[in-house]
């Protein structure tokens, strides 16, 4: 029995994860190292990777800041009633339930050139949708719950005793956060950061809708892969896909490491 | 520390900034899509929904989502069981690999399936000779959904199995229960909340999936066009109202699922 | 610090946790807030610290209203029930925290921490983390940390609750001595009457959000002001119809007067042990418990179970044995008032006969 179950598990992993992953690696080098370099060093590929990198940086920083603050407020704020906190808390999860395409559509509807807000920004010469800001907003929407959901349980678990002790010893908000709260939540934050990076690196649906996928302008690595496949240029797509996959595996290792640290605090 | 940092204005500034950010980023867009879908009137909404391409896409999504969730529940429960209960070489590696579909861009996941099973590939060619059609047909969509939702059930069941007191199981044995009986009477009930909430999460993710599917589905209306791809198509062909109508349908379904998951988890916590 | 509290009120939702509480505490005193769990003791303590805002009422330190001061500005030290030590800081850093916040110089910090480490007997543990300490040691760290910034008022929330019974005894006397030596006004919360009696100069009995009585432990024991205090402090048995007891018929003739009887109010023995036999009742010994230095005797009188102590020197009783029981005095109470009543027959035997 035992052997059968372990064998089956191995089979599932190999078929579903390991073979596909190695197929990408092999595919990228189908035409040798030169083919791989060629696919990767196309100007549009380099530009797309740069766009992805920029999005990752902006989204990670913003999401970390607001995510940590939101988690703090949802757990600690006594200026919000329990009821309001409960409602806000359930809204935090909504982006999980929203298809990325719909997430992108929402941004287009709200900030597109035909909308009131979008029209206003267009008027002052600031393009949101089909441009970088829109792509960042779409990715922020999709990644919002990740940081909040990592930090909240830790805050709940440690309770506010240590923070109150700090207050009676004369420490104000910022000192208390830096010296007392932060050391307890930092590994949860690191884990949340890794998740955010992974998600914003790989975000596709929302960005595709919002960006318009304009080559050399708003194209990201994932939307480039999509376009290459649509153009039956699978070989070229492979190079970029391999880079993305390599990053993901690296992030996965980071995740494991952060998870272990998080459990010890 | 100087007093200006402690000034109340800062505190209120922070609080309102964070709350405004939250409202503008999450609440406003969701609100907006509901408003938009009804902006041209109720009749326009029903018209958009009753377009056969639209409702067939939604039904197909639900059907394939259910199939992939079903497979996921079976396979995921088995894997969670093996990873928690057995010690064997490579266990930690497999355990870390579970999260790979979360970390991997979905478009890359789609490309993998395409490379592996697509026309011209070894397996794809073989299947074609046997009369199976995978890529650009429904099986490919199920595989894509399976791939992206793979971790959910495993990650939901694992902690429950780890928490399960071995004494409970042993108590069942001492009372003369057979292995099968102990499994169905003791182990399965304690895994059930995880199976349900993990399965629901997987299902809602399957409904929402776009990246992996769009690359392998072929997107033929009525046959392999799923809801999220349909919405994308409507946006591309400049029909945001139609896109919004189907979105509202899908969103409402997803929110319901989310609500059920919360209810299940809350019940599990109380028990 | 002289502490004054006037008409303090606090609600949690619809629950009225603290009701019109007023009291005053002299500088340098050690006060115990004693009462059952959920009675509002901790809420009062937290309002004094500024961790909770009162709905109404006034808190003054040194005659100055501090209601609007945040905890940071009140000059208090707080020892939390579970100590709330900073778990990622060493013992040294925990104790130094308040001084660092006040931007004391490195040398000052080192001197003060060393002094407190010695005072609390933690020498050699400075670089340990809280999880490497025993419960008693953690309590000492919490105490040293609260004292480090030289507060004017020390507040302790159930300081011994999380400690083993054996070490608790030791820590109590240690704490008492230490507070005396430092000379700081202190208030501690406890639900354990032995602890309050042993440690505090004065006790405040808190029940259902009200101060029932304030006084020295001896005063409270001797002259409880309310039935609750009488029953909460010391061991006792309550008898629902006091008029049934010999010697209390007249005193308790008003309807529904009840009697609270402490073990030391009762004397048991054989007939020749009592000079005024008519003041005694007949009772049957039900149970005997050996208490190390004396017997605890459960005796049944007219269907009521009374408890008393009996010296080991006296003749040993047997369960089932018939004895004479004299109730010297009782704490009587009804809906209107409560008082201590001596046994009238004992004082003035058979007055009509003479």
Automatic annotation (TrEMBL), chain A:
Entry keyword Transmembrane: yes
Main location: membrane
Residue ranges constituting the ABC transmembrane type-1 domain according to the UniProt record: 49-253
Compartment list: Membrane
One cellular-component annotation, GO: plasma membrane
Keywords: Membrane, Sulfate transport, Transmembrane, Transmembrane helix, Transport
Residue ranges of the TM segments: 7-29, 49-75, 87-112, 124-148, 188-214, 234-255
Protein name per the record: Sulfate ABC transporter
TrEMBL record, chain B:
Keyword entries, A-Z: Cell membrane, Membrane, Molybdenum, Sulfate transport, Transmembrane, Transmembrane helix, Transport
InterPro entries cross-referenced by the UniProt entry: CysT_permease (IPR011865), MetI-like (IPR000515), MetI-like_sf (IPR035906), ModB_ABC (IPR011867), Sulph_transpt2 (IPR005667)
Membrane topology term: Multi-pass membrane protein
Major location (coarse): membrane
Listed transmembrane segments: 20-45, 57-82, 102-127, 139-157, 182-203, 244-264
Pfam families to which the protein is assigned, alphabetical: BPD_transp_1
Stored SUPFAM superfamilies: MetI-like
One GO CC term, this protein: plasma membrane
One term of GO molecular function: ABC-type sulfate transporter activity
UniProt subcellular location: Cell membrane; Membrane
Residue span(s) of domain ABC transmembrane type-1: 58-261
Assembly with partners or alone: The complex is composed of two ATP-binding proteins (CysA), two transmembrane proteins (CysT and CysW) and a solute-binding protein (CysP).
Protein family membership: Belongs to the binding-protein-dependent transport system permease family. CysTW subfamily.
Record function comment: Part of the binding-protein-dependent transport system for molybdenum; probably responsible for the translocation of the substrate across the membrane. Part of the ABC transporter complex CysAWTP (TC 3.A.1.6.1) involved in sulfate/thiosulfate import. Probably responsible for the translocation of the substrate across the membrane.
Protein name, UniProt field: Molybdenum transport system permease
From TrEMBL, chain C:
Entry keyword set: ATP-binding, Nucleotide-binding, Sulfate transport, Translocase, Transport
Highest taxon above the source species: Bacteria
GO CC, one annotated term: ATP-binding cassette (ABC) transporter complex
Matches recorded under Pfam families: ABC_tran, TOBE_2
Boundaries of every ABC transporter domain copy: 3-233
The protein's Enzyme Commission number: 7.6.2.9
SUPFAM superfamilies named in the record: MOP-like, P-loop containing nucleoside triphosphate hydrolases
Catalytic activity: a quaternary ammonium(out) + ATP + H2O = a quaternary ammonium(in) + ADP + phosphate + H(+)
GO molecular function per UniProt: ABC-type quaternary ammonium compound transporting activity; ABC-type sulfate transporter activity; ATP binding; ATP hydrolysis activity
Leading EC class: translocase
Subunit structure of this chain's protein: The complex is composed of two ATP-binding proteins (OpuCA), two transmembrane proteins (OpuCB and OpuCD) and a solute-binding protein (OpuCC).
NCBIfam families registered for this protein in UniProt: 3a0106s01
Protein name (database record): Carnitine transport ATP-binding protein OpuCA
Record organism: Paenibacillus glucanolyticus
